Amino acid sequence: MDESEDVPKDFIKLKSEKLSVDEVSELVISPYCGAVSLFIGTTRNNFEGKKVIRLEYEAYTSMAETEIKKICRDVRQKWPSVKHIAVHHRLGVVPITEASVIIAVSSPHRTESLEAVMYCINTLKASVPIWKKNINTYLLSTKRQPILTAGGVQPRYCQSQHQLVSQLSHPASLL
């Protein structure tokens, strides 16, 4: 394979199905690269002192994909040796320990791929219109956290706990 056959590629996916670390890491492997760096963001079982049951993600999908493409372009400007970039983000319900985001970057050397992965996740959380809701042990959502607000998209917040409880047909329906 000559260098022209392995042109840099970006793999961006927002989906409701379970994410695969193997699938994402395989997307960025290149014979021209000695480093593949990964970030895997998983659902932990606590937030602000409360036990978390699961996370729920929503996105302004078309804008989120556009913003992630911008992040990929920025990475290539900052680290020209980066070969491939994959950013997969899960939407909908994400149970404890499952991945909500996987980012993989390949480059000839580790420094560039490690720095690029950190830049990707930090910028994604700051600028991409994806919102997360923590569902805690009280069967109530905590505030929705805008994990990214971009291009005039307003952060969205959940209703008050009282309003949420009054709208539930049965609290167990959140499990």
Automatic annotation (TrEMBL):
<dbReference type="GO" id="GO:0016607">
    <property type="term" value="C:nuclear speck"/>
</dbReference>
<dbReference type="InterPro" id="IPR036563">
    <property type="entry name" value="MoaE_sf"/>
</dbReference>
<keyword id="KW-0501">Molybdenum cofactor biosynthesis</keyword>
<dbReference type="GO" id="GO:0006777">
    <property type="term" value="P:Mo-molybdopterin cofactor biosynthetic process"/>
</dbReference>
<feature type="binding site">
    <location>
        <position position="125"/>
    </location>
    <ligand>
        <name>substrate</name>
    </ligand>
</feature>
<protein>
    <recommendedName>
        <fullName>Molybdopterin synthase catalytic subunit</fullName>
        <ecNumber>2.8.1.12</ecNumber>
    </recommendedName>
</protein>
<keyword id="KW-0808">Transferase</keyword>
<dbReference type="InterPro" id="IPR028888">
    <property type="entry name" value="MOCS2B_euk"/>
</dbReference>
<dbReference type="Pfam" id="PF02391">
    <property type="entry name" value="MoaE"/>
</dbReference>
<dbReference type="GO" id="GO:1990140">
    <property type="term" value="C:molybdopterin synthase complex"/>
</dbReference>
<comment type="function">
    <text>Catalytic subunit of the molybdopterin synthase complex, a complex that catalyzes the conversion of precursor Z into molybdopterin. Acts by mediating the incorporation of 2 sulfur atoms from thiocarboxylated MOCS2A into precursor Z to generate a dithiolene group.</text>
</comment>
<dbReference type="GO" id="GO:0030366">
    <property type="term" value="F:molybdopterin synthase activity"/>
</dbReference>
<comment type="pathway">
    <text>Cofactor biosynthesis; molybdopterin biosynthesis.</text>
</comment>
<comment type="subunit">
    <text>Heterotetramer; composed of 2 small (MOCS2A) and 2 large (MOCS2B) subunits.</text>
</comment>
<keyword id="KW-0963">Cytoplasm</keyword>
<dbReference type="InterPro" id="IPR003448">
    <property type="entry name" value="Mopterin_biosynth_MoaE"/>
</dbReference>
<comment type="similarity">
    <text>Belongs to the MoaE family. MOCS2B subfamily.</text>
</comment>
<feature type="binding site">
    <location>
        <begin position="109"/>
        <end position="110"/>
    </location>
    <ligand>
        <name>substrate</name>
    </ligand>
</feature>
